[in-house]
Amino acid sequence: MSQLEFEKPVLELEAKIAELRKVSSDDSLNIADEISRMQNKIDRLLAQIYGKLTPQQKVQVARHQERPHFKDYIAGFIEDFTPLAGDRNFGEDYALPGGMGRFRGRSCVILGHEKGSDTESRIRHNFGMARPEGYRKAQRLMRMA
Q: How would you classify the pairing of strands 79-83 and 98-103?
């Protein structure tokens, strides 16, 4: 896992929790209170760190390689997803995927932004830069919704 510089204190605490869990499983010691206390500290630290990010740090988070992609959100939240392609005028823009599906049982139209995860997919998705046909497709799907 690649880490950002400002996340190091959190990752150190998470490593300590992993060590405590390992010790706990080896010796059958009950150290759940200590783990709970450290987890609460991690939660407070995360809120503090991410509440005070500089503009440069926000860009680092937005461009992080392990950030979820459109397909991850679809797989995690949307049932019966049917992708819809093209603007019905020129062609398909892979930087703006969309389609229909169900979220918590309700029918919906889903639009997303995709820049790709490796060189080949980034080229296919035009590095996340939408073209006019992508915006026309987005308008079409929004009217459909």
A: antiparallel
What pLDDT band is residue 6 in, cutting at 50, 70 and 90?
A: confident
Using an 8 Å Cβ cutoff, are 100 and 81 in contact?
yes
CA distance 17 to 38: 7
pLDDT per residue over 41-60, tens digit each? 888 888 888 888 889 988 98
How far apart, in Å, are the Cα atoms of 94 and each of 84, 97, 123? 11, 6, 10
Question: Which residues partner with 109 through β-bridges?
Answer: 100
121-128 contacts at long range (C-beta below 8 A, 24 or more positions apart)? 124/94, 125/94, 125/95, 126/93, 126/94, 126/95, 127/95, 128/95
Q: Could you tell me the strand order of the sheet in which 79-83 lies?
A: 79-83, 98-103, 106-111
Burial class from Cβ neighbours inside 10 Å (0-12, 13-18, 19+) for residue 129 reads exposed
**pTM, rounded to two decimals:** 0.67
Q: Is the pLDDT of residue 28 over 60?
A: no
Please name the amino acid found at residue 96: L
